[in-house]
Specification:
85% helix; mainly alpha
Length: 397
């Protein structure tokens, strides 16, 4: 074997564990997507109210948010393997809980467990992805994003097929088995990371860094439109005369650019600079958001494809920005902070967006969201310029 072949073989061997992590990301998203699909069936089967179903959904978001803020730092302190294995185990128990649940408290409890599992796994996975191949961190984060979106897309289809052909409990039983099998695989892998300088710093010490402030401001700009889109897209298209099948197709098609272009977006962010890349993609997304407020049905659908392509560069770009901005001992903490920010902003955007749409119409909400996106983008660029004039601690990459 030549030196070149040996080098290529070594690089391939080094990347194989990363694909296990990418697959793990997809499997965790698979659970989330499947549950969302079955909430209406759960309501009808067990006689729950819409508020009860909302509580089940909210339970997962609340625990996911809390875990990403509170537990992410422990991945930076050398507990990555425990967090990954423990998170998958807790998620498996949550799925088993859904197999046997028949009361509201049991469904909420099971959803809490799944949220804990996902919120624990997420930052730990990203720490491994960032630290194991620093030369390709952008492309790897983009690939992880593609797997994340792909899992969320496949989840509803798998859940619907299993529920229709076997029964409502079948998707949860299947995912429980999948998570147990995943745990057995993880037990055989070396998932350790070096904690480096173990400095028990509070999250607020990370937030004080101008580069982190920049990345979080860009994340706010991104998740404002994500929350608004999730809450209002189907309503907007229905009000413009779209049939149900068309709404479903647009939601599926929206994910294709994310899967195709996210790895390229992450690599470009690492090469050209994350804030430079997201400045372009968020500007494009804000224009698209404004157009939803004034355009007819088919223009909105075409614009959504452009919007999705822009988001494929923004999401991994934000992750790369936080990875660059975070000190080596706070890599997972930074990623957890980013994820928690996204959950909080998207949730608030969805809540207030629906109210504004109902009260003032589509131009007010979509135009207002576009304006807020640009405001936070300006903040992001300003804080990044401060970082460049007086760089903080050495980046993780």
């Amino acid at each position: 074997m030549t030196d070149t072949e040996a080098t290529a073989a070594a690089a391939g061997a080094a990347r194989r564990p990363l694909y296990v992590l990418f697959l793990l990301t997809a499997l965790m998203s698979l659970g989330y997507g499947g549950i969302f699909t079955l909430l209406a069936d759960i309501r009808d089967e067990f006689g729950f109210s819409d508020a009860d179903v909302g509580l089940i959904a909210f339970a997962g978001f609340a625990t996911g948010f809390t875990c990403q803020v509170v537990l992410a730092r422990y991945a930076d302190r050398g507990h990555t393997a425990l967090m990954l294995r423990g998170g998958v185990a807790v998620a498996a128990v949550g799925m088993v809980g859904m197999v046997v649940a028949d009361q509201l408290w049991a469904w909420v409890g099971a959803r809490l467990l799944l949220g804990i599992g996902s919120g624990t796994v997420g930052p730990a996975v990203r720490r491994l992805v960032i630290t194991r191949d620093p030369e390709r961190v952008g492309a790897n984060l983009g690939t992880q994003t593609a797997f994340d979106v792909g899992g969320f897309v496949i989840g509803p289809v798998l859940a619907a097929v299993l529920a229709e052909t076997i029964g409502l409990r079948a998707p949860f039983a299947t995912l429980a088995v999948v998570y147990v099998a995943t745990l057995l695989v993880l037990l055989r892998l070396d998932l350790r990371t070096q904690p480096g300088q173990v400095v028990h710093r509070a999250v607020r010490s990370l937030v004080r860094l101008p580069a982190v402030q920049s990345a979080l401001a860009a994340a706010v700009a991104f998740y404002l439109t994500i929350g608004m889109f999730e809450a209002l897209w189907s309503i907007l298209l229905r009000d413009l005369g779209a049939e149900t099948w068309l709404i479903g197709v647009t939601l599926s098609v929206f994910t294709i650019p994310m899967i195709l272009f996210a790895p390229r977006g992450g690599a470009l962010a690492q090469r050209r600079g994350p804030i430079r890349v997201v400045s372009v993609s968020i500007t494009v997304a804000s224009v698209c958001t404004l157009m939803y407020g004034v355009s007819p049905l088919w223009i909105c659908i075409v614009v959504s494809a452009v919007h999705a392509t822009a988001d494929a560069f923004t999401l991994p770009g934000n992750q790369v920005a936080v990875a660059i901005a975070s000190p080596p001992d706070q890599v997972a903490t930074g990623q957890g902070l980013l994820g928690a920010t996204g959950l909080a902003v998207a949730g608030l955007s969805a809540l207030f967006g629906a109210a504004v749409y109902e009260a003032f119409g589509r131009l007010a909400i979509f135009g207002g969201t576009a304006a807020l996106m640009l405001v936070f983008l300006v903040v992001a660029r300003w804080r990044w310029s401060v970082h460049e004039r007086s760089p903080g601690p050495a980046p993780a990459t």
